[in-house]
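Q: How would the C-alpha cells look for this protein?
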Amino acid sequence: MIGKARTYRMADGIRVPGTWRHAFIRNGDYHLTDLFIYADGLIDCWGLVTLKEFEEKLRCGWVATELPDGARASGHELASWRFSEPYTWLTPELLLAEVRDTIEQLNGRPDSTDRCLAAVDAFLADRTDERRAAARAAYLAIPETQRHYALGDMDRRDVPLQVLVLGPGGYTQDWPDDAITREEYDEAVAYFEERAKWSAERPSRVPADGPATSVAPAIHLYQSYPLKPSDDPGTKALRNDYPAPVDVDGTTYLSVAHAYWALSTADPAARAAIMEADSSFAARKLAADAGRRDGWEQVRPAVMTRLLRAKYTQHPALAEVLLSTDDATLVYDDSDSDFWGDRSGRGRNWTGRLLELIRSELHAERCG
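A: Here is the predicted structure in C-alpha cell form.
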C-alpha cells in the first residue's frame, strides 16, 4: 500500500510519481534502506531496475527477505547491530506481489484487491459455484499482508470477504475450527449488497480532458555495441550504435553514432576516419581524440533529433520496433555521458527523450 509516502523522479522532463518502503539490501552485510517504487515500473534498490530485474534481485537475495540470526546489519550513518531472533513475514513472492500492486495503485489501475472485489460483484450478480471459485482465487491473489485492508473496514477487516468467497461450511483464517454458518453467510451477502448500493450512489468524477492515463512500464535500452544487423534485434535496434546506415545530405553513415561523432568535429581528416571506423566504439574514440567543433554543446540535441528522424524514416522495420514501445519511458544507457544517458537516474537521458519524440511523430504521421 502506498499510503502517504509519496515521491517522484524526473524522467524525460516529467514527474514520474512514486513511493517508498523500507527494505534490507544484502551486500555482504545487511543494509536497511528505502526501496523506491515508481509508476513506470522502475524500482530503485541501490540502482534503478525494471520489475523483471527486481524479481531477479529478490530471487538471489540482493533484496533480502530472509534475515539470519546473528547476521550483521546497519542503517547508513545511523547504527549497526546483529540480528537476534529475527522474524519477518515477507517472502520474495509476497514482496514482489506487494510491489506489483503498488505500481498499479500509482497508475490508478485495478490492483489485486480491486480485481477481487470485481470478482465478488460478478459472483453476486450470478451466484454460481464457478464464479464463487473465481472470487476465492482472486481473494487468495491479494498479498496476505494486504487482505485485511481489502474492504477498507478496520472493524470487520476482511471477514465478510472470507465468508462470502468460502460459503457455508467453509473455514475462515480467524476461526479455523468453526465452520461458516448459513446465518453468517447471509450477513456477509447483506454486507456486500449494502456496500454495492452505497458505491452506486457515490458520484464519479471524469477529468475534463478525457480519462487519466497510466504510466507505461519503462523500457531499459542497455549499453551494447552490435557489430552487424539482426533479423530480430528487439530493442537493441533502438540503440544509436545499431548498424543501420543513415543518409544525411547525400552522405551515408554506418549508424547514427557514426554520423553523430563525424558531425561533431570540424576536422575533415578526423571526420573521414570516423565515417570509416569499423564500430561505433572506434568512432567515439576517434572523435574524442579530435575534439568538438565550436558550439557543439548547444546544437547537439538538434543534430541528434535530425539523425534519429533519418534512421526511423529510412528504416521502416526499425520504426515498427520504436512504435511497438507504445508510450513507455525509454531509459537509455550511456556509460560515457550524463547528458545522453540515464546513468541510474543521475543523467538527463536525452537520447531516450528524443526517441520518444520521434516515436510520437511516427504515431502522428500514422494517425494522419
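The first strand starts at residue 6 and ends at 11.

The chain has a mean pLDDT of 89.

Upvote if useful.
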